[in-house]
């Protein structure tokens, strides 16, 4: 496999706009396999690198961070994504499942935050099992990242280059130059922009400023993981508590821990004065005892807070500029409500590797472009729908009181509204959403068997008992 050549940039182009006119010409040497440069070594970047290496591509990942540090709490890898990771590599998926905790083997549900009454419960395991998909797991983000990075490095030890920020690119007829912040340039046959929601690659592709290319959703999110085992952990893995213009989500993440999110409507950039936990305790005062117990069980230093950004699908601008293509959050940033942002990045990775995998090593510019278009065609509609569903569910959960104070509410009263019609809408739509997510797996292997172990299924009761003793 050929290594990437690093050369000082012989005069940076005046403009980083798309097209070839301002780009310095460099001759591409003949290569044994197509070279793919990936901007961004996050979930999507590492997954596509691993999948492409499996197919014999020469891959280099450029990650701006100087090293992979433990960062971020647990993340759901849902059945649709786990199934495609399994198609990419069985051992990788087993490693993820072994490091994670199955949540798809129990129910999820929505409660009223104040009264603690159930609106509805739904089963994420049954639609997955029906299609022989592995069950949804949660796994700590650093562990997931580590499993993906190991998978990449095991195939190509020098594939990941840290401290390498991509600042632009130049398309040429026979290659693309990748411009790095340190002033060097690398050449490749294809550049994948997997550099997240504030993507520099997308900014150049769409001729916009990276920092203004996503819009504030109106929601601010606090999150942490704490030692806590819910009374009903054997039956319910994931709960949403609804309130007035705010809601709270709690998920079992294994080893006697709960990961929680508190979503509040706040202006962008709002600062929290004093302790975050004190602020949240007052915001959720009078809510379900479980919400208060979870907040009480959390260490102040564990709480992270961030504004949430998303964007409507790039219907006019698309994801492709000649030899450059977008993937993951760079292509379709979305609200975290459905826990599908990373899952969609994994689906992208699988599909892009499949499309490029159809090319020969001497593929022409047109063939490369057609492969990228095949990928975009397969992914655009599905990701746009998931972006829309995530935005809709976010609005529905947040504005439920507004719905409830409409004409129907005047007739029924809001508690009655939500315990009847509201629960029918949400409870009835969730199986449809899951059907959509789990049934439309692009190019997925027909003969899949769901033999990824549900890990660790070992007695929550034991965890519960020991956690109560501590
Ligand atoms: C609160 C919250 C909870 C979530 N929960 C879930 C969940 O449960 N399940 C789920 O599937 N998704 C979840 N998501 C969404 C998920 O985190 C993202 O969709 C996912 O990380 C996208 O992967 P990515 O590779 O596209 O981008 P990222 O993971 O953001 O990776 C981008 C990478 O590119 C690097 N980078 C950026 N710019 C450059 C540059 N110019 N040059 C080089 N490198 C660069 C960054 O350092 C980073 O490593 C959640 C999101 C939030 C905010």
From TrEMBL:
Cofactor: FAD
Signal peptide: none
Annotated InterPro entries: FAD-bd, FAD/NAD-bd_sf
EC numbers on record: 1.14.15.21
Domain FAD-binding: 34-379
Keyword Oxidoreductase set for record: yes
GO MF, one annotated term: zeaxanthin epoxidase activity
Keyword field contains Transmembrane helix: no
Gene3D superfamilies, per the entry: FAD/NAD(P)-binding domain
Record protein name field: Plastid zeaxanthin epoxidase
Gene that this polypeptide is encoded by: ZEP
